[in-house]
Write a structure and sequence with these properties.
The protein has 697 residues and is an alpha/beta fold. Helices cover 55% and strands 8% of the residues. It has helices at residues 2-8, 14-27, 64-79, 83-96, 108-112, 115-153, 160-181, 190-233, 241-249, 253-272, 278-282, 285-297, 300-316, 323-328, 334-350, 363-368, 375-400, 406-420, 453-467, 497-503, 519-532, 573-586, 594-604, 661-670, 674-682, 686-694; strands spanning 431-432, 442-447, 474-479, 489-493, 508-512, 559-565, 608-610, 613-614, 630-642, 645-654. The chain has a 5-stranded mixed beta sheet with strand order 1-5-4-2-3, sandwiched between helices. Helix 3 packs across helix 10 and helix 9 packs across helix 15.
Length: 697
Amino acid sequence: MYFAAVEMYEISKVSEALFTSYVLLRKTQSSVSLRLTAPFQRSRPCGGRKERPHPYIGKEIPPVKERVQKFGRFLSGMVMPNIGAFIAWGLIAALFIPDGWLGWWGPAATINSMVGPMLSYLLPILIGYTGGKVVGGQKGAVTGALATLGAIASTSSTMFIGAMICGPLGGWCIKKFDQKMEGHIPAGFEMVVNNFSVGIIGGILAVLSIFAIGPACVKITDVLGAGVSFLVEHSLLPFTAVLVEPAKVLFLNNAINHGVFTPIGTAEALEAGKSILFMIESNPGPGLGLLLAYCVAGKGETRSSAGAAAFIQFVGGIHEIYFPYVLMNPIVILGPMIGNIAGIFTLSILGGGLVAAASPGSIIAEMLMTPKGGYFANIVGIAVAGAVSFAISVFLLKFFGKDASLAEAQAQVAASKAASKGQAPALESTTGAEVDIKSVKKIVFACDAGMGSSAMGATMLRNKLKDAGITGIEVIHHPVSEIPGDCQIVVTHHELSGRAAQRAPQARIIPIHNFMGAPEYDALVDELLAARKGSAAPAAPVAAPKAETPAPTQEDTLLERKNIVLNCAPVTPEEAIKACGRLMVESGYVDEAYIQGMLDREASFSVAIGSHVAIPHGTNDVKPLIKRTGVVVMTYPEGIDWNGDKVKLVVGIAAKGEEHLEVLGRIVAIASTDEDTDKLVASADTEKLFKNLNGLA
């Protein structure tokens, strides 16, 4: 990694890197979906021979920034949850090492004895545990910690990199094992298999780590250390700012700081008592200089707001607050960039550095992490970075600055931040296009698969519109990827709002948190009623007389008696989903791989839809694994803690078409509130549920 950086940061190429960074920031001002089109297609040879088209032509692929952000989230996601432990280690080291502030105190030597074990054992195991949990849940966390311990035991070197490998590897191994064993564990042996699988797989990985992963990581650490030494010896370390500053504005700062600088800097601090790497990204000086420049050379709103932003950035350590000011005038990124170069150069000369990571990057955190005798160097380094950034930014604003919208830039930053975390942009309670409420003819409920929660929500709103006497509005449900272009209102889960807005830019988007009993339904009905007051309600479309639908028979029921399981003991949401999936597999509704699609659906956002009801079902990607439509029902009288929601009725769904909607409609009718569901579950018997939900009662 660092050898590649060396080539990039050679002085002869600095100007090229500056230009590239500027262009990249300009491109972020207009985010567009990237598609592989003509430039990626090979032209047909003169002889007329057909060339095989590129496998990705016509397919939407994630932009490079998005893929880098995803990898960055993965790296920093292992370190950031444990950053408090890094800070604790740094404070104890700064205070109680022999040269520390309290090194003279009698008990200091005893307290200092924690420093080594924390660095060698605690911090790597925490990283490995967290990495395993991200990939494989709680079992993956334990397996990842065991694998990490093997890497630690193989060497005296600090195993941060080993932990970042062993943790996810342990989580992946246990996850794959669980997938293979799904449906093959005899009843009553689940705990035995779960415990022994973690022990056996974790033990094997620990031994493997001793002989393979640990030694390999030592080599990697040596290479990275040599790379850092090379940069320092050749005075190239300051030029890391050429990428660090633009990366911060693109929300890659956590990946760089906590995924790269923190692990390497911590190992360096153990040897030298401090590390300059902790200050490359966290230095508050460059951002302060930029914001002060806006106070002097900015215009209108930007000038008046920059002072408060400077205080928040410098004292509070919230660097994101200056990102909109960069995006308004991308060329000003040169100010913080060159300012940081000057700051790092100054710190290198004066011997500056911190004992541990400063998080957040405020002047307070920087001073707390400064070792004894290091205040002059660090303060001067921060001051030089701020002064250079200020001078260059003022010049750029006076001659190249433009009066742009701060609000638009802030909105862009918010969207970029959400994207960096893999989330949909934050939306208001109602957003999207402006729609004439009087002209609404079609309302779409959208979820990931368009099979369960959206169908329930559509049924509830349809009933509310009917009760209110509102006619002429079609209420349908669809997967979020298939929202029709003629709808005027889209109701969807708040985590899918961004995708819905992209799919239906012409529609008003109403984000909700659950599909059962959402207050937004009543608000929408009231709004529709108010819009129709004083004007004739649109006439209901004339439809041809419907042929009477024959009552269902016991032979064509979607819910079979054997798939009604009552009075289940409380379990985790994951276990409840797997239990539903196994019933579906045993009944011939789905292939076994459909269960993983159900778990993936829950991982995206909860299938608990309110009113103490959950509707597990697969994602849109696993619909081909459905053999035939079927429903399973399980009751949990004591309730399940479903990620903060209580669930007592679990309805698993596999639907090839629309046959299941009648069952869902009947659930809405008898379990529309928490109280309704509680009564239903408390008094449930197999025959009663069988008849009620199949429409046989």
